[in-house]
Amino acid sequence: MYTLDIILPHIDHSKRLLPYPQARFSVLAYDTRKIRLGTDCLFFALVQQRDGHRYILDAYQKGVRSFVISDPDFDTRDYPDANFLWVNDTMRALQQLAAYHRSRFSIPVVGITGSNGKTIVKSWLHQLLSPEYKCYQSPKSYNSQLGVALSLWNLTAEHDLAIIEAGVSKIGEMDFLQQMIRPTFGIFTSLGTAHREGFNSKEEKFAEKWKLFAGVSPVIVPSSAIPEAYSSSSNCITWGGRPEDQLQFLGSSQDKDHTVLQLRYEKESFVIAAPFVDKASIDNVLTCILVMLTMGYAVDTIEQRVVLLRPLEMRLQLKKGKYNNSIIDDTYSNDFASLQIALDFLGQQNQSDVKKLILSDFEGEEWTTKTIDKFAQLLNVQSLSQVILVGERMEMLRSKLQMPSLLFKSTDELLNALADLGLKNCVLLLKGARKFELERVGRLLVEQSHDTILEINLKAIENNLSQYRSCLSKGVRMMAMVKAFSYGSGSFEVANVLQFNKLDYLTVAFVDEGAELRRAGISIPIMVLSPHEGTFEDILLYDLEPEIYSIRILRSFIAFLETRGITSYPVHLKLDTGMHRLGFMPDEIGPAVDIIRTSQRIKIVTAFSHLVGAGSRELGTFSTQQIQLFKQMVSQIELSIGYSVMKHICNTSGIVYHPEAHMDMVRLGIGLYGFDMAPNALNLEEVGTLKTTITQIKKIPKTETVGYDRKGVLQRDSIIATVKIGYADGYDRRLGNGIGEMSINGNIVTTVGNICMDMCMLDVTDIEAREGDEVLVFPDLNQAARNIGTIPYELLTGISSRVKRVYFYE
Asked: Which residues are reported to carry the modification N6-(pyridoxal phosphate)lysine (predicted)?
């Protein structure tokens, strides 16, 4: 807990207004949606894609009374009892405060960076070192400019070792991270292609990342990752296949589920069995082994602990439950920082007002009165209907809780009582330390699939939304398309993320889709495309806003509203400027506005049209003609009805290619899901990943054929894998017979024979593959679409509803 007068010398500021300089705070807030107890917060008005100054009133209304701002003209007269500190850059001020907090601890701090493996190595080291250390690790993948600051803020006097990861994507970023972390021990995991767009070369990227280790010794690093210019660095302790590596990798042998590593360290040879077979995991294990050896651990101890390592699920997963519930699975770790993150995600869910938590005991936490009070305060400010605690020590926490609670001494005891706990019709967060194996609870509560799943990255949706928002001028609104099951991604889950990120409008194709969103708690405006007379009742019932696209629908909807006595109902007028699909033609504007003007039943909220080829340079002239015609048609409408309406014509590609036509609002469609038919410089992330598994592997001689109609003709003796996806799952039959490509353990393989209803076959002759291996169905969705002469839209929307959607938030 700090007071403002204590931190003032440590934050560069130009002005301050502090009626209450003794105000205390323990939470650094930057997002008003996540504020639970405002009186404990110091709010930083970060200026990023969205200006945090716009949310100061919201924070104030939630109880915040201390603010760090950068707008010199911000009017504080409406906040007479609030403290204000003016700085040049609020992000730098936040980092300065985090650096000051870090400086108060003299414990060893391990700094981790690299292209891949940072979070895995950090989490495994936390597990490996926890028996001897009260070890703090930065939560999840909190390695950015903001994430590192927030990570360090959770460091307390109870910890005697900290492991902090740092990530950069361009030149200059590591300087700020290094000043905050100031590591005493370094780990460089790998040098790959991640974030390559921010650097001119691998050497430049390495140099930027290496800044974290200024003055640090030792630094653990694979020798293969070190550029020649750094190979003689005296602070490096390396592992690899060279004789001069301190940990020498002599070779390995693999069984079905583990790898035996043959190693040499300080002239002593030994073997360690690692419970992994993939190269990335083995590399991360070798890094961990060398860290432990450098810290003085005996080989026997390392061997006993490494064998207990498991692959980590590094993200929150949102899954559909069996009992009309939603399950948030976060069962790979449990500490204060990651619990905060998981509770924030639980708070975003609107599927049900009933929210419950199953929480295990914590790893690496000394169970003091101060610790118990900290966790109790965090839980008591949440809107939880019930907390179910697991672990013998949790009785002390239970006595401090203000909501209904239950206690089970073990996971087995919880499982025995699970059927009687009433976990139906709710949103349930499973949050547990790894040793409690709460994933066993999840398996009993989650709907099962046939091993083919579509993973939806909700964080990627937020990123893509932010990327397109950055293209807009101030005041331009955004509408997102969640029609067609959100391009196969799942309507509600996507809509919920968009609502949380304060999107202005949603659009659905059918009234049923809009009704489903309303029932699930989505409250922002929803436009419905192409309604018909049979849907008008539900449009009113669920507060949806119809697209009006013809004289017939216009008259029908007005007549319907007259029977209900409703006036000024919001509608959206669709204008046909060249697509010639739906919408009013130019010569229909006059008759349409005559009907609208003589009726008070509807109010036009927006008028919009659709560009035929927004991303096509060849169609640039036609797009310009469409835009001009649209403006003329809207001017005629506004002149006739006597008021202005919002105007929008730009779709995904139009946002980038036609900034002059953004007008009042833009419509984001396929771009939200990581695809844009037109090339652009945006850093989009693919949202959906379709995965399946290998069911069986067979050796087939070249004299045989594979699949229906003997279409799979073999040119050699082959090894054929059957995987659990077919055309009933949405895998297009045109992708058979070598046209389709999938990825197994990073290797591209092709289909063999015709695609079956529930399965298809792959040629795995040239790769290592095992039954049960994961298969990435579309390693390159754009290429798959090109191979069969279609577009990514078709492949995405074609993924069957029987394919289980698993949502995660990194």
From this structure: 483
